[in-house]
Amino acid sequence: MSKVKAGEAYVEIGGDPRKLFAALSRAQRQLGQLGSALSGVGRNMIGVGVAIAAPIGAAVVAGSRFQDVMLNVRASTGATADELEKVRKAAMDASQALGVGPTEAAAGFLELLKAGMSVQQVLGGAGKAAIQFAKVGGLQVSEAAVVMADAMNVFKVTADTAANTLSAAADASSTSIEGIAQAFSQVSAVAGLANQTIQDTAAALAVLANAGVKGSDAGTSLKTMLLRLMAPAEDAAKALGEIGLSTQSFRNADGTMKPLVEIIRTLTTAMQGMDQAAKDDIFRRIFGQDAIRAAAVLTQAGVEGFAAMQNGMGGALKVGEKFDELQSGLSGAANKLKAALERLGIAISDAVGPAMMD
């Protein structure tokens, strides 16, 4: 059994983690008293001695990092003092509930706010979804927040839908959430312009991953494929005409692009009876070097393969369920402990920061 003492605040570290977490919470509340006691030290803080200055110095570093993010929230978004306090409290609450450091949580909130979400949206569920998505996918919360925000803005879906769809695509294929996220960052904007849903876009990326086309390469190839069908160059239009197709073959009556499954069906039907050499030549002329991989893989999988991937994605666990499962083990407990210690450090920093600034 060992004890950490700051003024009258103790943290006992023993065999029962519940006692540790209870002690950390109690210590955090009591640190306000420590701040009052040290506020009079002011310029004489250097005389406190190494024994107390070292842990307090480490705590101030943790607190300053958190403060930097909060100042960035105010500077980047123009948040009011009330909104800033709400974001701060939400970051601390998310840290305690989800076992993530408050600084990392706040950094994720910042990216969502910078993407145009309101404080209400971030605190109403988008922030939590970004944290869970990040931990499930092995991403930084800020990285996960950017991917989610792009998906929400482009496809007009909720945070949960964005996170669950990308996670499901990774679970149903041979790539990771990180790989799907990389691919998605390349193709999402064009997929949205091409009237594709987030589910169909993710399924297409999963099909490509199973064929060995992954990460940003998959996203770039699918993006170029869609662009070549939306506005084909002269040689591509000529090649389409040779198999009885035109740009209108891939559009609905209102001019919008058809769903990917219909695009695949149209291409495979038009090329029935052709030998592989003829198909390769047509694809090269229609899609060029970048997009030929996506077109070839998707048409080879066909409507049936695409539908099978969508069905596989439908059976995947939700991100929240996966997160709870991951947090139930030893690493989850370690994450919670690390987050609790960071909150404790921020509390110490809040208590002694003004005196140290003096």
Could you explain the architecture of this structure?
With 358 residues, this protein is an all-alpha fold. It is 75% helix and 3% strand. The chain contains 15 helices and two strands. Strands 1-2 form a two-stranded antiparallel ribbon. The chain is elongated, with a radius of gyration of 26 Å. The two termini are 37 Å apart. The N terminus is likely disordered.
How does the major sheet shape up?
2 strands, antiparallel
Shape: elongated
The portion of residues forming beta strands comes to: under 5%
Let me know the average pLDDT: 86
> Over all CA atoms, what is the radius of gyration?
26 Å
SSE order, as H and E? Answer: EEHHHHHHHHHHHHHHH
Q: Report the helical percentage.
A: over 70%
Low-confidence runs? 1-14, 40-47
Give me the secondary-structure topology:
Blueprint: E1 2-6, E2 9-13, H1 17-38, H2 50-77, H3 81-98, H4 102-114, H5 119-137, H6 141-155, H7 159-171, H8 177-193, H9 198-210, H10 215-230, H11 234-242, H12 260-270, H13 276-314, H14 319-327, H15 330-357
Antiparallel strand pairs: 1-2
